[in-house]
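FW: tagging you since you asked about this chain on Friday. Here's the raw sequence from the shared folder, copied in full. Didn't touch anything.
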Amino acid sequence: MARIRWGASWLSHGRPNHPPVVFAAKIDNAMRLVALDTLAERVGMKRGQGAAEACAMCPSLDVIIDDPAADRAFLEGLADWCDRYTPLVALDGTDGLFLDITGCAHLHGGEKALVDDVLSRLFLLGIEARAVISSSAGLSWAVARYGDAAVIRPEDAERVLAPLPVAALRLPAETTALLERVGLKQVGDLLQAPRASLARRFGPSLLLRLDQARGHEDEPLSPRLPVPSFSAERRLAEPLQEEEHILELARHLSNDVRLFLERHGERGRLFELLLIRVDGRVFRVQAHAAVPLNDADRIAALFRERLQAVHDDLDAGYGFEILRLSVPRSERLDPTQEDFSGIPDESQPLAAFADKLCARFGPDCLTFATLAESHLPERSGGFAPLTDVAAIMEPRPVDEKACPENRPLRIFTHPELVEATAEVPEGAPRSFNWRKTQYRVARAEGPERIAAEWWIDGEDHPTRDYFRVEDQEGRRFWLFREGLYGRETSSPRWFMHGVFA
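HL: got it, structure written out here
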C-alpha cells in the first residue's frame, strides 16, 4: 500500500504526514484488524482488535479492506526476488519467507553481510522487513517477530530465546492463552519447567515447537519451486534493456550450462531464463525442447523465439541486473555413434520445427494422437502435446485389441442421445431419430458388449451394447444401448457414438 501511495522510495524520504494505516477483514461476523503499520502499533493498536474500537482510539485512522489475493501475489513476487540469494525459498504463511542459505552466505561476504544486503535492498524498494539468520527456522521466526538480533550463533540460541513471549513459539492461540493464564509468559519459563509436566498439561506440540526453536528437532523447509540441477548466472554492473543484448548474454549462459550438462552426461529438456529487474520485479521465461539438448546455439534459439512471443509482457523498465539460465528438467542420454551414410537424422528438422512453434505459440500448439489403456472408445485415444519428437518417430507395434478394425472413422468425444425403436430385450434398432432427422435401418450387426470401467465409473454404471447399422440410403452409424434390459434398467437409452463415412 505504501509503495503504491507514496512511491517505492518512501522509506528513504521518510514517512509522509499521514494517519496510521491498518488493514481490516471480516472475522466471526465482525471487522477486525489483520495488519497494521508501525505508527498504528505505536499508538497501542493490536491485531485482532475490532475496527470500530480502533477508529474510536484514532478517529483519523486509515482503514483499508484486506485483499488476501493481492498479498499472496506480492509475497510470491518477493520470493522470486529472493532467488538472487538462494534457490531454496519457502513461503511462511501470509507475511514471511524462509530462505535456506546453507552454502550460500560466503558468496555474499558472510552471514552478516547477507542480512545487511537483504535489508538495504528491501529498504530501497520501499519494503519494511526484518531478517534473522540462525541454525533453526523456528528461532529465526521467533526473533524476527519478537526480538532484535540479526545473526544468532547456535550456542546463543537459548539465551536469545529465553526473554521472548511464548507466542514466539508458533503455538495455537488457545495454547498461548492457557500458558499465560498459568504464569508461563516467557520461553525461559518453559525452559525451566519439567518437560513431563508440560507434555501432560499442554500436549506434545508444545515440546516440539520448543525443541524446533532451540534447534534440537529438524524442521525441513519445502521450497516453493523445485531446485534446478544446472544453472549459470550473471550479475551485471550495467543493467540490460535491449532484447538483443539479453539474447547475447543468454547464449553465453547457454554455453556455460552446456559444459555442466556434458560433464554429467545429460541433456536439457526444459530451460528457464530468470530476469531480475532493477526495481525487484522478476520475469521467468521457460522454453521446452522437443529433443534433449546440450547445444548452446539451439538453446539460445529457443529463447529468441520465446522472447518474441512474450515481448509485450516483458517490460525491461530501467533494465535487468541479474540473468540466470537454469535447467529444471534434464535427461541422461547415452552416447550413440552415427553411421557413415551421410543422411541426417530425420528427427532433427522436425525437432527444430516443433521447438520454434512451441516457443512462439505455446506448448499446446502441436499435438499428436495417442492411445490409452482403456476399453471404452472415448477413453482409448486422444491427443497430447508434442513434447517429445521421439514419441512419434519411433515405430511402435500396433495392438489389435486397442485398435479394432470395426471402429468407425469418426468417434464423438461425447455420445449423443437418440430416440430409437428396437426389439426387446437385445434387438438391434429398427429406426432412430438423430439431430432432428429420422433414419430407417436396413442392415444391422451386433451387439458388441462393452462393460463399464467400475474402478472409474463405479459398480452401478450401466453396460453398453454397440451396433453397426446401415440405413436405407447406405449411410453407416455406430450406436449403443446403455443398460441391460430387465437387469440394469427397465428403459434403456440409445446413443450415437460415431459414423463410418
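FW: Residues 341-346 have pLDDT under 50 and may be disordered.
HL: agreed, and Residues 243-263 form the longest helix (21 residues).
FW: great, closing this out.
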